[in-house]
Specification:
The structure holds two protein chains of two kinds. A five-stranded parallel sheet of chain A has the order 3-2-4-5-7, with helices on both faces. Chain A has a two-stranded parallel sheet with strand order 6-8. Chain A contains 14 helices and eight strands. By secondary structure, chain A is of the alpha/beta class. In chain B, a hairpin with a 5-residue loop joins strand 1 and strand 2. About 17% of the residues of chain B have low confidence. Chain B has a two-stranded antiparallel ribbon with strand order 1-2. The chains are: A alpha/beta, B mainly alpha. The interface between A and B is large, with 50 and 53 residues.
């Protein structure tokens, strides 16, 4: 780059030859190749820490739901449904309050995923833990019955997991060549937080947090928001779609007939529904059960709860979840499934 | 366009090729800077490019107008004033005075046009809705219900930065510290230079404009150190700042965070904002240096500060020196007595807070910083007075802590050294810089040294050093208090509302079993390790670019590791820089 001085207004001058850049960039490039090679070698020799993949909150939750269908577990009660069941029910507290203190597993997912998949989450667990489960509790929001927001991502996550396709499809070739997969999933995730986006990122900074929370809470998650609606809503016009009726039938078919099924609708904030909503709620439950054929309808659960218990229109905050879990436990205690459980124990 | 985006790497690659091509043409080089900078800026929103050009063109002609008539600045071709001379030597003294009087009015008018234009645009886009809403709420308190429609404009990115930069030019020309440039392209290149356009450093025309006018020399060490700065800055942003954000954002969305979570999240935010902003500055300085252009230092180990004053000498230096030179000193600085000095500090920090954003939490943050500076100053004065009394000196001989050499600060020992570091281009000697960087930690580390071995870092020999009065605060305590003070300031800065400030503050008083604070704390530690290690290394060596002392192979390995980590943490959708919103 040392060139003869051009006449006139010279702009800038490189006071080195182009070849001088080789020792500047060379060590960095060589070092980079070395790091990549080392990672591949360590991965090949399996000398890296165990695999802990980086996922989105939804992936973490769906993957755990799938893993739990096959993982060792003593759960006798399985909660299924949309996010209201995942968040509104504190599984360990419910287990404490039920007769015989059975272990409770929360397999709640998301709204719009399809009731048939809820059924698969319970049915798969029952199939891999034969003779163990006494009761499956389906808890959904009234909104879910309208099936207004189908979520293909969540459906795909479940289907991928069931088909053992995994979530690796998004890893590109260049990422594999650079050893990024191994560095991220076997090294970095054990040390530092990775991106967590979406609603759950409000409360869980990192997959560790969500996994740790679910592990400690029998699969239940949490929503710490507070609900302050601008105005009281008018009476909602909830209805059950034909698609939901069809899915309800598939849900029941996915759960072995010897396992009892109870169904309830999660409470809504006071401001969102009138006091008379309870009547409509019970009608909805009966209509749903024409297809679902559940053993028990949880009609004594509250249809509404004070706004102070709500995190948003669909979820309860931790205080609300504790309150609702107690009410649910009281309702479930009345069911004629625990005598058998007590006898079995004896 | 974000530095941490793939788009930018393509852009910068193409720019470097073009930079090589135009090496023999000064005018073409500056045109290249201007065009590339406008493309860079337009990537975000092309509509606001006209706003940037408008501000620049107005100030270019305003400055030219100031230079016409009466006394002219006889500047070098690079714009820096060497001496002043009368435009027309044949004019008689009396007529010169008359002309100067006219000229003075004309210059004031032109300065007014520049101030009204720039601050008007800034106010319109950044503050109008804030003041409208605040006024509406205030009137509502008196039962007056006003329904105003907000403008709800998008805030043009970097508007506060380039507005301050262009304003400094017209004010400098007005003050006759600088001769106006006659080249619009050079001026546009100075205002819009893309590495520092949207988040600083806020460059002074006296420093950057001459570089746009002259031939630049690019040496191999410049390329090497520029590359290092860029890689380290990118690492700080992508790996550290964006990861700290995951510890911050959830907690600042909690309704009822626990004390441990609030504390960890606030600490993480302190580190996030530092890594984010200083990372950007490092990248800007690194890129500029690879092009042969030197940008000013903007951060000097700010969390090693032992007082609030010290913090402001180390944090966002280009803004604090701007506020000092164009606001604090014109208000009277510390020359008008104690009360007025405190008032000046309050005004400056209040406006400094508002500069960051049109929201009450930034106002609160500014007032908090002013409070710290005032308490700091009052404490320093009481110590100085006590020293003077003990040594039999008049208190006025030691009390003054001038903010600039123009206030008589030159040559007043350690204080003067610290204050000199505020200069846009550090004027410190090598030894002074080392002493300044090492001061706080050496005081802390000296606690662990044998009693007789404890020493300050000022370089004074033991017999010359005066013992501090008994009630003087030890440096380690000063550091701790300053850090805690700064942390609470960041809580105010980050909070989304006054209610949240209250919630987070009260949460600190209610310790409960942490939910996942343990995991958060571990992550905070893991992320802090590389930053702390680098800063301790910088401190020990007294050199912010200490990595350049490593042999090439060792630095290459270090750079390779940093690049690998950066790719590992790279996000498809690049996270924006915090200071872009200002």
């Amino acid at each position: 780059m040392n060139e003869p001085q051009a006449a006139g207004n010279r702009s800038h001058e490189f006071q080195f030859a182009g070849a001088a850049l080789v020792p500047v960039f060379g060590p960095t490039l060589a070092g980079f190749v070395g790091v990549v090679a080392l990672l591949h070698l360590l991965n090949l020799l399996n000398w890296l820490p165990p695999h802990a993949p980086v996922e989105s909150p939804d992936e973490v939750l769906m993957r755990r739901r799938f893993e739990m269908t096959r993982a060792p577990s003593a759960a006798e009660v399985v909660i299924i449904g949309d996010s209201s069941s995942a968040i509104d029910v504190e599984a360990p507290l419910l287990g404490e309050l039920l007769p015989g203190k059975p272990e409770v597993l929360n397999q709640g997912m998301y709204m719009g995923i399809g009731m048939d998949i809820y059924g698969e989450a319970a049915g798969e667990f029952v199939r891999h833990h034969p003779g163990q489960v006494k009761l499956v509790v389906l808890l959904i929001t009234a909104e879910q019955l309208q099936n207004v927001m189908m979520n293909p991502l969540h459906q795909r996550l479940w289907r991928d997991a069931m088909g053992a396709a995994g979530a690796d499809a998004e890893t590109s070739n260049w990422q594999r060549w650079l050893g990024l997969e191994a560095a991220r999933d076997r090294l970095a995730t054990h040390l530092v937080p990775f991106a967590f986006h979406g609603h759950a990122s409000l409360y869980f900074a990192h997959p560790f947090h969500l996994r740790q929370h679910m592990r400690a809470h029998g699969g239940s998650t949490v929503d710490r928001g507070s609900y302050n609606p601008a105005a009281v809503a008018g009476p909602p016009n909830f209805r059950i779609t034909d698609e939901v009726r069809r899915e309800a039938g598939l849900l029941r078919a996915a759960i072995p007939s010897e396992v009892r099924l109870a169904v309830g609708i999660a409470p809504l904030p006071d401001s969102d529904v009138p006091a008379a909503f309870r009547v409509r709620r019970d009608e909805l439950l009966r209509e749903l059960n024409e297809s679902l054929r559940a053993d028990f309808l949880l009609t004594e659960l509250p249809a509404r709860l004070p706004n102070g218990f709500a995190a948003n229109p669909f979820h309860l905050n931790p205080r609300g979840a504790a309150h609702f879990t107690r009410l649910l436990a009281a309702e479930l205690t009345k069911l004629p499934v625990w005598k058998d459980a007590a006898v079995d124990r004896e | 366009m974000l530095f941490n985006s793939t788009d930018f790497f393509v852009f910068f690659g193409v720019f470097l090729l073009a930079w090589y091509v135009v090496r023999n043409h000064l005018a073409a080089r500056n045109w290249l800077i201007v065009i590339a900078s406008l493309i860079f800026y337009s990537w975000w929103d092309y509509r606001f490019t006209s706003l940037l050009l408008f501000s620049a063109v107005v100030d270019y002609y305003v400055a030219l107008g100031m230079g016409r008539g009466g006394r002219q600045a006889k500047g070098r071709s690079d714009g820096v004033v060497e001496q002043w001379s009368d435009e027309d030597q044949s004019l008689q003294h009396s007529s010169t005075s008359a002309l100067q009087s006219v000229s003075s009015r004309r210059r004031k008018l032109l300065l007014g046009i520049s101030l009204v234009t720039n601050l008007g645009v800034l106010f319109f886009f950044k503050y109008f809705d804030f003041f409208r809403e605040s006024t509406r709420l205030l009137l509502g308190q008196f039962g007056i219900d006003v329904q105003w429609t907000g403008l709800q404009y998008i805030l043009p990115v970097g508007i506060s930065f380039y507005t301050f930069q262009t304003l400094s030019y017209t004010i400098d020309v007005y003050r006759r510290d600088l001769a106006p440039t006659r080249s619009l392209v050079q001026f546009l290149a100075y205002i819009a230079f893309f590495p520092q356009l949207v988040a600083g450093p806020i460059e002074r025309a006296t420093h950057l404009l001459p570089q746009m006018a002259r031939k630049l020399t690019i040496t191999l060490p410049m390329v090497e150190s520029g590359l290092w700065l860029f890689i380290w800055g990118l690492f700080k942003k992508v790996v550290l700042a964006d990861s700290f954000a995951y510890l911050v954002d959830p907690v600042f969305k909690f309704v009822e965070p626990e004390a441990s979570q609030t504390l960890i999240a606030t600490t993480a935010f302190a580190l996030q904002i530092y890594c984010d902003f200083s990372g950007y500055t490092d990248m800007a300085r690194g890129m500029a240096r690879m092009l042969g252009i030197e940008l000013m230092l903007n951060f000097n180990l700010p969390y090693f500060a032992t007082s609030v004053q010290d913090f402001w000498r180390r944090w966002h230096i280009s803004l604090s020196t701007w506020l000092r030179d164009y606001l604090y000193l014109p208000l009277g600085g510390n020359r008008l007595g104690g009360g007025r000095t405190y008032l000046n500090l309050l005004i400056v920090m209040l406006l400094g807070g508002l500069w960051h954003g049109a929201a009450w939490n930034f106002v609160a943050w500014g007032v908090w910083q002013a409070f710290g500076l005032i308490v700091n100053r009052a404490w320093s004065e009481s110590i100085s007075a006590a020293c003077a009394k003990r040594d039999g000196l008049k208190s006025s001989e030691t009390m003054a802590l001038p903010l600039s050499p123009s206030e008589g600060g030159e040559g007043r020992g350690e204080e003067a050294i610290q204050l000199a570091s505020l200069r846009p281009v550090t004027g410190l000697g090598r030894g002074e810089e080392v002493a300044e960087m090492q001061k706080p930690l050496s005081s802390i580390l000296s606690l662990f040294a044998p009693h007789g071995a404890r020493s300050g870092s000022s370089g004074e020999s033991a017999p010359e050093r005066r013992a501090p009065p008994r009630f003087a605060m030890p440096s380690w305590l000063g550091w701790l208090l300053t850090f805690l003070f700064t942390l609470y300031g960041w809580l105010l800065f980050r909070a989304n509302s006054a209610e949240q400030v209250l919630t987070l503050t009260t949460s600190l008083a209610h310790w409960a079993p942490p939910v996942w604070a343990g995991v958060m704390f571990r992550e905070l530690l893991v992320l802090t390790v590389p930053l702390l290690a680098m800063q301790l290394w910088q401190w020990r060596s007294g050199d912010l670019e200490v990595a350049m002392r490593l042999p090439r192979w060792a630095r290459g390995l270090l750079q390779a590791g940093l690049i690998y980590a950066t790719i590992l943490f790279w996000q498809r959708e690049a996270a924006s820089f915090i200071y872009f919103q200002f």
